[in-house]
Amino acid sequence: MPPVSTDSQYDHYLVARQNVADQAASGLTPTSDQRTILIIIGVYIAAILVLWNMPIAKIILAPFKLLTVGLHEFSHAAVGCCTCAKIDSIEIDPDEGGVTRMRGGIQMCTLPAGYLGSSLIGAILVMCGFNILASKIASIFLGVCLLFTLWWAKNWLTRAIGVVFIGLMVFLWWLAHGAGLKYFVLFIGVMSSLYCLWDILDDLVFRKAYESDASKFAKVCGGGCMSSRAWGVIWFFISLIFLVSGILIGLAAFKEHLEDGMHEWCTLEYKHMLTNVGADNLYFSGLSDECKANMPEELKVAHCHSEDVLHIPGLKLEEVCLLDPQGKSELSPEDGDKFKYFLFGGILGDDPPQDRTKELRKLGFEGRRLGPVQMTTDTAVNVTKRVVVDKVPMEEIPYIDHPEIFFSKRESVTMPFRYIIEEKEVTVDGQTKTIKKPLMPPGMLELIKKDNEMSLDDF
């Protein structure tokens, strides 16, 4: 790479931290991504309520209803085990009913466990549906529940439901890096949470012929001093509290924001940018006072601004090019003569991409694309410099997509990003060979290995 110029006409690179994550400021205010999840939850609720008993169309919902029944019965059995009961069997019938047979246990605990347990499981799944990693962990929890259900199952339908949905979760786990799993977990969570609502309506409004859990509980608890309707209403509100709590905790716990300090990933990437473009040409915007105070000394030589990108002194909107996956055209060498500043979002992208650039897009900057594959922020800055300063067309820059990084013969990790290829000559058995590797910041491989080991420990 040519030496870094510090000439005043050299193009400038803006890394906007706050604007990409400003909606995650604090508390329960939903970010743009979280608002999408809330809309999806609303759509799920509407679809489930419409399809629940609709002729013909309800067939679509039938397998999921049977899964929900399975979670209801599992909750009976799990609490039964906790109260020293012996579980004889769990059965789900084609009419979307179920029964758990046990000996012993405490009925005051096991009877409400079906409704309340399944609604609690639903609330946990809804909470985890706000985050892909949390959804993966929740799917493991759900899989364990189904495995126990399989252990206690005594009919083919119960076994089939367990096997099918465990298989579906395994498939979704690996499909598109788990993106579909997030929405599956969210759907099952919403449906399980609504199960109590519908069954209470079935018991209190439609007065079904067989005894419900609420009816049995009313006889056991207090000698029938409260009717099954009263207990049903209490259980309904408890389930509703579970669901609302799951949503609120999801909003608070899985908020996409930047910490006051800098993650090691960001620090390494930013140092790499500094090396590539020079301190005079690198700008950081939207830095909190604490973030600026805690920044590594090496980065403080760049232009560090507390203001958001629109309020940096001397910056004009028409001089800024936003590097945007949805830009109207690809970045070209001619853009170096048209724009003075090139703007990047300062958060390492998610896999799959979550389009966080839209928060900057709303501000009205003209956009350019850097190809179809997501890049790390430092790679995006490096590619931009090569195109607009070195005048190398994008298609002539050598790339490697989704490289697999090997730490040993059996240990590797696939990076879901595009990198510039770095060629190195190595000598093996007296022969010189040229190997191609992804160009990463110094220290990144060691950090990836450490983070990968931590992730394995978490599971």
Average pLDDT: 82
Percent helix, as a range, is 40-55%
The overall number of domains is: 2
Question: Oligomer, anyone?
Answer: single chain
Structural class: alpha/beta
Strand order of the largest sheet: 5-4-1-7-6-8
Number of strands: 13
Radius of gyration, in Å, reads 28 Å
Shape: elongated
Q: In sequence order, what are the helices and strands, one letter per element?
A: EHHHEEHHHHHHHEHEEHEHEHEEEEEH
Beta-strand content bin: 5-15%
Which residues sit in consecutive blocks of at least 5 with pLDDT less than 50?
Answer: 1-10, 18-26, 454-459
Work out the helix count: 15
> What characterizes the major β-sheet?
6 strands, parallel
End-to-end distance: 41 Å
Transmembrane segments: 36-56, 120-150, 156-176, 183-201, 233-254
Organism: Umbelopsis vinacea
Keywords: Membrane, Transmembrane, Transmembrane helix
Pfam family, one: Peptidase_M50B
Give structural attributes:
single chain; alpha/beta; Alpha/beta knot; 3-stranded antiparallel β-sheet; 14% strand; disordered N terminus; disordered C terminus
Secondary-structure blueprint:
Blueprint: E1 12-16, H1 18-21, H2 32-51, H3 58-82, E2 86-93, E3 97-103, H4 107-128, H5 132-152, H6 156-174, H7 179-204, H8 213-220, H9 228-253, H10 264-277, E4 282-285, H11 289-294, E5 303-304, E6 320-323, H12 335-338, E7 341-345, H13 358-361, E8 366-368, H14 377-388, E9 399-401, E10 404-406, E11 412-414, E12 418-428, E13 431-438, H15 444-458
Parallel strand pairs: 1-4, 1-7, 4-5, 6-7, 6-8
Antiparallel strand pairs: 2-3, 9-12, 10-11, 12-13
Helix pairs in contact: 2-7, 3-4, 3-5, 3-6, 3-7, 4-5, 4-7, 4-8, 4-9, 5-6, 5-7, 7-9, 8-9, 10-14
